[in-house]
């Protein structure tokens, strides 16, 4: 889809997943037994066959770059276009830009060289299966300056408190942007607009000492812009806290949620060639997501198990998320726990968290 340029902007996403973002940015956090949060927005762009995607990052991006590589897993290792990872590298002493405007100003070549006339801008915290082709056609039909994507949430959760909300009229145009907690139209940090108009607004904001594109170019000018609203009705989860990460991980164990996210929408991730999971004689596994490369000798129920995990004989794992290459020794018991990568849990150790506030073990810990 040469008409559309992808922009994934991580600048405004705070590292608020506590131990899970000690050593990585939020977009690189593992999710759903084999993926990272970045995989979902990248896969949406891959399905729409975007020619070029720019990823703007500011901090803790080593793990993310290692995961993405040259973009081959998302069919973005191309001679023309592809995936561009654009970390901060600013050497212009006269540059006065700030916030995410600094990324856009210092990477004008990326935008100008792209042949696309429109761009779609997104973060990584909102997981969806949005059809970007449909969004693009809707934007053209509405004849808007910019189109914002929202989801009408029937039952608001604590993670929605940090999200912007949209007031939408009967013609599907935005009449207000705010953070009123009781409002159900949650903005998904995604918009589409004409590329040249976007760059004009970037330069205008910088010239007037502004810092953030959405707030200063769109939200502050909602009365002068023609802003359309696109209602997304598919699977949605927002991961902006440790509690929301755990809750949405557990909810994927419900078949209807899993099928809504993965059933008709292939999600790509970094390919790792590992053997199938091996279940030993005394293994018991129920209602769990288990990736490849594991060795299971104990009891696992209602849990998400990532690649290469070893759960020894007699160990018990319940209502937990166990990330790559963790080792849980014989007789250990864990419940309501999030265990980051490469953790080693010793024999007979018992760790029990609360279902509303899970116990978290940081990466590479030995307990």
TrEMBL record:
<dbReference type="Pfam" id="PF00483">
    <property type="entry name" value="NTP_transferase"/>
</dbReference>
<dbReference type="Pfam" id="PF24894">
    <property type="entry name" value="Hexapep_GlmU"/>
</dbReference>
<dbReference type="GO" id="GO:0008878">
    <property type="term" value="F:glucose-1-phosphate adenylyltransferase activity"/>
</dbReference>
<dbReference type="InterPro" id="IPR005835">
    <property type="entry name" value="NTP_transferase_dom"/>
</dbReference>
<feature type="domain" description="Nucleotidyl transferase">
    <location>
        <begin position="17"/>
        <end position="152"/>
    </location>
</feature>
<dbReference type="InterPro" id="IPR056818">
    <property type="entry name" value="GlmU/GlgC-like_hexapep"/>
</dbReference>
<feature type="domain" description="Glucose-1-phosphate adenylyltransferase/Bifunctional protein GlmU-like C-terminal hexapeptide">
    <location>
        <begin position="282"/>
        <end position="350"/>
    </location>
</feature>
<keyword id="KW-0320">Glycogen biosynthesis</keyword>
<dbReference type="InterPro" id="IPR029044">
    <property type="entry name" value="Nucleotide-diphossugar_trans"/>
</dbReference>
<dbReference type="InterPro" id="IPR011832">
    <property type="entry name" value="GlgDAde_trans"/>
</dbReference>
<dbReference type="InterPro" id="IPR011004">
    <property type="entry name" value="Trimer_LpxA-like_sf"/>
</dbReference>
<keyword id="KW-0808">Transferase</keyword>
<dbReference type="InterPro" id="IPR011831">
    <property type="entry name" value="ADP-Glc_PPase"/>
</dbReference>
<comment type="similarity">
    <text>Belongs to the bacterial/plant glucose-1-phosphate adenylyltransferase family.</text>
</comment>
<keyword id="KW-0548">Nucleotidyltransferase</keyword>
<protein>
    <submittedName>
        <fullName>Glucose-1-phosphate adenylyltransferase subunit GlgD</fullName>
        <ecNumber>2.7.7.27</ecNumber>
    </submittedName>
</protein>
<dbReference type="GO" id="GO:0005978">
    <property type="term" value="P:glycogen biosynthetic process"/>
</dbReference>
